[in-house]
Amino acid sequence: MHRFNTAVFGTGFVGRVHLEGIRRLGFVHVYAIGESNAEKARKLGEEFHVDKTDSDYHKILEDPAVDAVHVCTPNILHFPMVRDALQAGKHVICEKPLSTSVEQAAQLVALARQTGRRNCTFHNLRFYPLVQQMRRMREAGDLGEILVVQGTYSQDWLLYDTDWNWRLDSKANGRSRCLADIGSHFCDMAEHVTGARITSLCADMQTFHKTRKRPKGPVETFAGKTLAPEDYQEVEIDTEDYGGVIFRMGDRTRGAFTVSQVSAGRKNGLSIEIYGSKAGVAWNQERPDELWIGHRNTPNQIIIKDPSLLKEAARPYADLPGGHSEGYDDTFKQVFRRFYQSIDDPSAEPQYPQFADGLRQLQILEAELASADRRAWVDVPAFQPG
Ligand SMILES: NC(=O)c1ccc[n+]([C@@H]2O[C@H](COP(=O)([O-])OP(=O)(O)OC[C@H]3O[C@@H](n4cnc5c(N)ncnc54)[C@H](O)[C@@H]3O)[C@@H](O)[C@H]2O)c1
């Protein structure tokens, strides 16, 4: 295996998780940090013994020693950073959403194809071992025909009008907040596990706080609870706090989900339930090592993640023995390992979501926004592999 040098752009909440996850691989070195907050970059660079930090990411892209880039900045920066990184010949992992429009995402898919670089949209939540178990159970026919897909992605960190983050501002985030930020994870998981595609949908959205109190200084994700009243100013909000979607997957399968960032008590509550003609499965991100399996004529089961009891194809997604929990940050390691292995072996089929999957989520999002605007059902285009 080659040793790769990588760069992380943006070192807020998720950038740091990327940084730590990369270092768990062994054969990938965090060589550079591109972070506009120079002081934060310097501190983190020292802590992690990173070779170079720069507040201007272009300077890092000029360095031929950099093999790959992780884009972990606010959404609006994904498009220019990914485009520039591909044009500089780097392989790219980009956080979701891939961009803020279908048009931009399609350009990135085309550019990745043209440059022949490995590309990943970071839908990491597919990589929990028991999400893979659900997928493999469906593939093996254990669930039968998929009839109903339902669930929610609910959080509470933006419940109060004093809660602030760049995601609230469409200029940094793009038009949609909840549906783009967490709805995209739900839809990616629903399509990945069922193997079916959302073909049409009907969406509703709500912004409960039409104005919010914006802090006068910057606030990192999930870190806004410690400010005092004089630290704020009142601003109008143009991104949604809530989204509700009913959808069709082809002629027979039906589904529904909600997304919310104002659901008191739900921290990172992605739960998905899939009901087939033979059995049902239900999984909740806040208890990731448990999978509920529902039966009509025999007692229901709850299985605990244990590689020796998983389907063979799900087993490589669990690195620890049964009873040793694997959670959110482990999904990062699972994606990164597959991504860098695919750079090492150019003939390997990518075992991770690519830019085409990011484009797919933006097509679903565009349909959701059009549906909510028109108060009508909207068709979603067919998936186009990259
Ligand atoms: N896959 C997941 O589970 C997951 C989880 C959280 C966030 N995300 C995604 O990651 C991205 C970042 O979200 P976050 O919550 O970490 O945000 P954050 O605000 O915590 O961090 C963003 C960082 O980017 C830096 N930045 C801003 N402009 C920059 C520039 N021009 N150059 C370099 N750095 C710049 C900021 O200083 C900050 O450190 C978003 O697109 C979000 O959707 C994904």
Structure explained in plain terms:
- The chain has 2 domains: 4-125, Rossmann fold (3-Layer(aba) Sandwich); 129-326, Dihydrodipicolinate Reductase, domain 2, CATH 3.30.360.10.
- The two termini are 26 Å apart.
- A hairpin with a 3-residue loop joins strand 13 and strand 14.
- The protein contains 10 helices and 17 strands.
- The chain has helices at 13-23, 38-48, 57-61, 78-87, 102-115, 129-139, 170-173, 178-194, 328-344, 355-374, and strands at 4-9, 28-34, 52-54, 68-71, 91-95, 119-122, 146-154, 200-206, 211-215, 232-236, 242-249, 253-260, 269-276, 280-284, 290-294, 301-304, 378-379.
- The strands form 3 sheets. The protein has a 9-stranded mixed beta sheet.
- 31% of the residues lie in helices and 25% in strands.
- The mean pLDDT is 96.
- The longest helix has 20 residues, at 355-374.
- By secondary structure, it is α/β, with parallel strands linked by helices.
- Bound molecules: nicotinamide-adenine-dinucleotide (NAD).
- Residues 9-15, 34-37, 57, 72-75, 77, 95-96, 122, 124, 166, 181, 220-221 line the site of nicotinamide-adenine-dinucleotide (NAD).
